[in-house]
Specification:
Shape of chain A: globular
Number of strands of chain B: 14
Largest interface: A-B, 28 and 22 residues
Low-confidence stretches of chain B: none
Mean pLDDT of chain A: 97
Strand content of chain B: 25-35%
Oligomer: heterodimer
Number of helices of chain A: 21
């Protein structure tokens, strides 16, 4: 049971998470914990080549292994369609088919070629190795800037020049303003490729009951309804016959906002063999067969007045989309386009985004999804400009903030920022980080032979995805609303069924708090069901920091509906007009007559009994809402990193980290702090440690967690965090979203701090990750020039 | 992450283990190098013989002036042993930084030495301590100096059918240290330097600067000739053969060797 120190667990309280007791005790139910009678196991034979023609597949040796049920290739699996992509930003996006199993050609290491079904995981693995595939290697395109050049190896016939899509946005009058600006600074920034690395790899258990042609798919996903829709479409079965269940899901970070080849293949294998079939992705597979993130190269020039007022930004972005498109691949860098101006009053932009196919794992949404790339870029540019002008980095930012009075503010990329008050967050962060006394700490470190620096990131992002009209306008093939059902039982407890699909966020806790606050049903009396299409109305799932601002509002509005209905019943029972009642602490009472009162529990019972309902009112207290958000929300904040670089080894250590975030009103401060901490950690990981590296032949060199470096607690700083509160006017709770804030903010302030530390050597930019060897080399090169 | 099938036997004595090894079994102790290799299918074995519970194979004692450590002694037990602290400071320091706590709770000193990872911590420490390694086989027991044990990339003087049973370290080496450079505390060393002052003066072992741990002869000679720690450490890159890699250039690693040796010497002084 939750421990509630205050005795309350409403909005604004921090009850412990309902989810955690079973997870901590090892009693979670993940896909791999599920066992069905007659269950068989799947494994995939995957391409060892980045690009090759398949000349022969011989499955006979694999089929001869005792315990092998079936071996499938694209010729025998019987799926015509490919992996879906629901994103076409321009209407002219090249969407080459991604076969479920390779069809005569492979375009990346790890591409599935054959599927084995066997009586055990070990036999399936042995058989996968026993499938003989003859490959005729083809030349590879690995680096997107080279892949764009004439003569580069081509991946897809329909995509000449390996070009997936080009997106441009140029404000009217840009050229005159840009040309006239007296100060220009330029940087090339490589936002490196990352691997999401959820602690639970992907996992699928498909149970196709051929007798009635119904399939239940247990899958580790953020979007069970999307999986249902696409499984129905691709496998040719009625959507009404498909049930998708996301049980406990061990993290996603966007990597499970997708519908994968393996989900179709495993479902089809169950259909063909008559066995329930389970596939558990290994970590080695996950490093290449689950989507990657980021991998965006940026050439940017910022134009400003001599006093530091920013006027115009020109940027050419090159996004590596990998070998194929996954669900939302082309949209991710499109989100970067929208957020290029950051939280500055920057009136003019000229943006060109080229998205390029290469022989690598597809990129797609990874925590922050396009917005970290924008924030990192504009915040690096602002520091570069401050350096050029000899201005303080904080004061340059302050000068260029969108003023509080300007909201709602229309950005140069056409967004309407809902609300913002950027200076208080900046001021608070500067104070908490002892910014004004930093130079003494720099000098002290220098005396020890080290370089100390301080860096800022003032950030804004776009949450609450998304108004359906906008998703349509930007070519995403789904709306952006969310659903909720609230059902109050005769004994007064409540069931919430949410279309959001939690995978670590704590929705069971936060959603219960909303019900306690809105209806007076105690936190512990509220059960929250998510992630099961058999229970839930269509839900669009959990990603893009959308759950509270869209799914939470759907629940909030449902509570209002239930309360309104309860008011009619209370008025009938108390023999007064509904307008004579007032709501307080979970009760409708006659104004001025505290003894004439009906609790929500009494009203729920009466509504269930049904014998004394007002005319025209249906029995039971239950309601459903589909909430369509009128706009995005735009949380913001200031982060400050203070780092020290070992002058002898180049090792960067974060000495202090301060985060002041504003996500509007807060439901559970403890959960918000956790989201902030987790996001910052993941972003520090990008700044200092993580990078997916391919060699020139398309082999991934960082194929395990030995080489793909995820930091542990010992590598991370203590984070000092605080909040300001600027409610969103776009929803009745005034909430915004916080799941990605830390990831969006932190890389920039860490890198800005490192560049600040080394600026005395003439260093003006450093690429991520700031691994010691790279930083040491930069120091040597700079000293060599001096 | 599923290994190929293998047989598993558990030995209750060294002789039983040696008998199984004579039939091709590979010894399994802490399993923190071998098991991941099996799971990644980088290694494949017909039979593993588990020596973790062989009586007498684990434990730390002092035999006259010699520190004696059984091969299956866990890193954690080495790191927290009063005897190790009293006789081989460099080893106590290094063992406390092998991998992470989970690795130290399971991994063994003998396993690490027999594995001889080019970025492992302990081979360099054995060189610095002038340790001797006791090897047993069906045909008897022999003792090999650490200088002769670490042969090449993942290769030691262990012959087929031979089991490392004991590490013998000249005692009283209370001036010693291990300086390790890595990106995460849990990682192997990019470069590590072990220093220890024995009866014949300072010995210095390096890891990560070539296919196998090596003595830094130039540093040792300079120290013997009375050079300062800083001056002597400057010779640490001499004669090394580090590789360019994701963790840095060869030049960087030679530089790190100098920095780590100096830091180890300063910390040991």
């Amino acid at each position: 049971m939750a421990t509630v120190e205050t005795g309350r667990a409403g909005v604004g309280d921090s009850p412990l998470r309902k989810e955690d007791a079973p997870l901590i005790a090892g009693q979670g139910r993940f896909v791999d914990d599920l066992k069905l009678p007659g269950m068989a196991f799947a494994a995939f034979t995957r391409s060892p080549h980045a690009h090759a023609t398949i000349t022969r597949i011989d499955t006979s040796a694999a089929e001869a292994i005792e315990g092998v049920v079936a071996v499938y290739t694209s010729a025998t699996l019987g799926i015509e369609g490919g992996v879906p992509c629901a994103s076409n930003p321009t209407g002219e996006t090249k969407q080459p088919k991604r076969p479920i199993l390779a069809e005569g050609r492979v375009r990346m290491v790890g591409e599935p070629v054959a599927l084995i079904v066997a009586s055990s995981q070990a036999i399936a693995r042995d058989a996968a190795d026993a499938v003989v595939v003859d490959y005729d290697p083809l030349p590879v395109a690995i680096h997107p800037e080279k892949a764009m050049l004439p003569g580069a190896p081509q991946l897809h016939e329909i995509a000449p020049g390996n070009k997936c899509v080009t997106i441009t946005h140029k404000t009217e009058g840009f050229d005159a303003v840009f040309d006239a600006a007296p100060v220009k600074v330029s940087l090339t920034i490589d936002n490196q490729r990352l691997v999401p690395v959820a602690i639970e790899p992907r996992a699928v258990l498909a149970d196709w009951v051929t007798a009635n042609d119904e399939v239940t798919l247990y899958t580790s996903t953020q979007v069970p309804h999307f999986v249902r829709t696409f499984v129905a479409a691709v496998l040719g079965v009625s959507e009404a016959k498909v049930r998708v269940i996301a049980p406990d899901v061990g993290g996603g970070f966007g990597s499970k906002l997708n519908v994968y080849a393996e989900e179709f293949a495993v479902a089809q294998a169950s259909r063909l063999t008559g066995h329930p079939v389970k596939w558990i992705e290994t970590r080695s597979e996950a490093m290449v067969s689950t989507i990657h993130g980021r991998d965006q190269l940026q050439h940017a020039t910022l134009a400003a007045d001599a006093d530091g007022r920013v006027r115009a930004l020109r940027i050419h972005m090159i996004q590596d989309v990998g070998a194929y498109l996954q669900l939302l691949t082309p949209t991710i860098a499109h989100l970067t386009v929208f957020m290029v101006p950051g939280l500055y009053d920057l009136p003019h932009v000229d943006i060109t985004l080229d998205e390029i196919f290469t022989n690598t794992t597809p990129t797609d949404a990874y925590r922050g999804a396009g917005r970290p790339e924008a924030t990192h870029m504009i915040e690096r540019m602002m520091d570069r400009l401050a350096d050029e002008l000899g201005m303080d980095a904080a004061e340059l930012r302050r000068k260029n903030f969108i003023p509080k009075a300007a909201f709602p503010y229309t950005s140069a990329t056409g967004l309407s920022y809902d609300s913002g008050d950027y200076e208080p967050a900046l001021d608070k962060a500067l104070e908490m980080s002892d910014y004004s006394t930093f130079e003494a700490r720099r000098a002290e470190a220098r005396a020890r032979g080290n370089y100390r620096g301080i860096g800022l990131s003032t950030w804004v992002e776009i949450c609450g995805l998304a108004p359906s009209a906008v998703t349509k306008a930007i070519g995403v093939g789904a709306g952006g609303w969310e659903s909720a059902i609230l059902r109050i039982h005769p004994t007064g407890s409540a069931t919430v069924i949410t279309g959001s699909s939690a995978h670590g966020q704590g929705h069971e806790t936060s959603w219960s708090q909303i019900v306690e606050s809105e209806l007076g049903i105690p936190f512990d009396q509220v059960e929250v069901i998510h992630g099961d299409t058999g229970y839930s109305p269509y839900g669009l799932g959990t990603y893009g920091s959308r759950s509270l601002a869209v799914g939470g509002i759907a629940l909030f509005n449902t509570c209002e509906k239930v309360r309104d209905k309860a008011q009619l019943i209370a008025a009938h029972l108390l023999e007064c007009a509904p307008g004579d009642l007032e709501w307080a602490d979970g009760k409708w009472q006659v104004k001025g007559s505290p003894d004439k009162v009906k609790t929500i529990q009494e009203l729920a019972y009466a509504a269930w009994a049904g014998d004394s309902m007002p005319a025209g009112v249906e029995p039971n207290l239950e309601a459903t809402t589909f909430f369509e958000p009128p706009n995005f929300t735009f949380p913001f904040g200031t982060h400050v990193a203070e780092i020290e670089i070992d002058g002898e080894t180049g090792k960067v250590t974060i000495e202090r980290y301060t985060a002041v975030d504003d996500c509007g009103n807060v439901v559970n401060p403890m959960i918000v702090d956790g989201q902030v901490h987790g996001g910052i950690v993941q972003s520090i990981a990008q700044a200092l440690f993580e990078e997916a590296v391919y060699d020139d032949s398309g082999q991934i060199l960082t194929s395990s967690l030995v080489d793909y470096m995820i930091p542990a607690a010992s590598e991370l700083p203590r984070i000092t965090s605080a909040r300001t509160v600027t409610p969103s006017p776009t929803n009745p709770m005034g909430v915004k979203g916080i799941g990605e804030a830390g990831t969006i903010a932190a890389t920039a302030c860490v890198v800005n701090a490192a560049v600040d530390a080394l600026s005395e050597l003439g260093i003006r930019h450093l690429e991520m990750p700031l691994q010691p060897a790279r930083v040491w080399q930069a120091i040597q090169d700079a000293k060599g020039k001096q | 992450m599923i290994p190929e099938a293998f047989d598993y036997v558990r030995a209750s004595s060294v002789d039983e283990a040696l008998a199984a090894m004579a039939h091709g079994a590979r010894p399994l102790a802490g399993g923190h190098s071998l098991v991941p290799a099996l799971k990644l299918r980088l290694a494949s074995e017909d039979t593993l013989v588990d020596i973790a519970r062989v009586p007498g194979l684990a434990g730390i004692s002092v035999d006259g002036s010699t520190l004696v450590i059984g091969a299956t002694t866990r890193h954690h037990d080495v790191a927290t042993s009063a005897d190790v602290a009293a006789h081989a400071t460099a080893l106590a320091a290094a063992a406390g930084g092998v991998g992470d706590q989970m690795v130290r709770n399971r991994g063994t000193i003998g396993g690490s030495l027999a594995q001889n990872d080019p970025h492992g911590d302990l081979p360099a420490v054995m060189l610095a301590l002038g340790a001797e390694l006791v090897l047993r086989s069906a045909s008897g027991t022999r003792t090999v100096a650490a200088d002769d044990f670490f042969v090449d990339y993942y290769t030691t003087a262990l012959a087929d059918g031979e089991l490392l049973t004991q590490i013998r370290i000249p005692g009283g080496q209370t001036q010693g240290a291990y300086a390790k450079f890595n990106r995460r505390a849990m990682d192997w060393a990019i470069v590590g330097a072990a220093v220890s002052k024995g009866a014949d003066g300072w010995r210095v072992g390096l890891t990560g600067v070539g296919p196998v741990a090596v003595r830094a002869a130039g540093v040792e000679q300079a120290l013997a000739a009375g050079a300062s720690a800083a001056d002597a450490a400057g010779k640490a890159g001499e004669g090394t053969a580090p590789q360019d890699g994701l963790d840095g250039s060869a030049e960087y690693k030679r530089h790190l060797a100098c920095v780590m040796v100096r830091r180890a010497l300063e910390s040991a002084a």
